Amino acid sequence: MKISKILAGMSAAAIVASMAMIPASAAGTKLNVSDDLAKIGRQTQDDLFAVFFNGDESEGAVNKDAISDLGAVYGASFTIKVDNNDWNTIGGGGSINFNSKSGGWNAKDWAGGSWVEDDKPKDTLCYTTEEEGTYVLEYLGDAPVFATTDGDADNYAAVGINNWAADLKGIDVVGMKVLGADGNVLFEAGSNKDKKEVQKKPVAEESSSGADSTPSGTDSKKDDSKKDDKSSAAATSTAATSTAATSSKSGTTTTATSSAAASDNVAATGATAGLALAGVALAGAAIVISKRK
């Protein structure tokens, strides 16, 4: 009985220790919204910015009649500026959001810099531009993101951007577009840049074995463009996971943040360390048993 109690106690301690290794979530780095965009949108929290095309004007700016048919909206893009060194070593991620009475919270994940994973492509693509440190995040779907009923006076419809990365120096949101079925622009504001090619994931320097370190681009059913031939050397990614899960609802207007794990690698590292601790704890229990014989 005593041995059983010792084993049970040590196992419980190992489980608690392993759970402690999983990092707690935190708010993402602040989105610095340009003045021209700030005038037509709302920033209810630091890591979330949205532009409303229908809704209650008493709660903030609403761009009524800016889009004649909300049922024709298939996507959106945001032009952002970042510190390129942070982008390529720390990485970033978040979502482009379509918030409405009919569809609720509809988030399309994006990833940039060292967070890009070739085997886990996102619906929202991160394109490079001619300007260093400036990128275009774009989602273009196969179906409308809003229902035609969202144009009714009692409903709301908003297009927004969310950021999960907590360690970046900052993300400047400088432009946005609302897109139609063919990628045609239904609404545009701010300083948008022309997208060039899908961003490549930075790679470390070639190993001494001379293994090929050329990265492969993020696949997309919407983009068959030629991949960028340039590869940038980057330090080991240390991106911390940051989950935004705040929801605010007032009247007919809802604003929330997407809840998602930003980096599988961080969680995996925590789990591995937890298992190692569990092994140490159980080994300690075995020593105790051996001494009691």
Descriptors:
single chain; 293 residues; alpha+beta; six-stranded mixed β-sheet; five-stranded antiparallel β-sheet; 4 helices; 13 strands; 20% helix; 28% strand; disordered C terminus
What does the model show?
This protein has 293 residues and is α+β, with helices and mostly antiparallel strands. The protein is 20% helix and 28% strand. The chain is built from four helices and 13 strands. Strands 1, 4, 7, 8, 10 and 11 form a six-stranded mixed sheet that branches.
Give a topology summary.
Layout: H1 2-20, E1 31-33, H2 35-38, E2 42-45, E3 48-54, E4 75-82, H3 84-89, E5 92-100, E6 104-112, E7 125-128, E8 134-140, E9 157-163, E10 171-179, E11 185-190, E12 247-250, E13 253-256, H4 264-292
Parallel strand pairs: 1-10
Antiparallel strand pairs: 2-3, 3-9, 4-8, 4-10, 5-6, 5-9, 7-8, 10-11, 12-13
Helix content class: 10-25%
Structural class of the helix and strand makeup? alpha+beta
Mean pLDDT: 72
* Assembly type: single chain
According to DSSP, the number of beta strands is: 13
Radius of gyration: 23 Å
| Poorly predicted runs of 5 or more residues | 1-26, 205-293
Helix segment tally: 4
Our measurement of the CA-to-CA distance between the termini, rounded to an integer number of angstroms, reads: 13 Å
How would you sum up this structure in a few lines?
The protein is 20% helix and 28% strand. It has 293 residues and is α+β, with helices and mostly antiparallel strands. Strands 1, 4, 7, 8, 10 and 11 form a 6-stranded mixed β-sheet that branches.
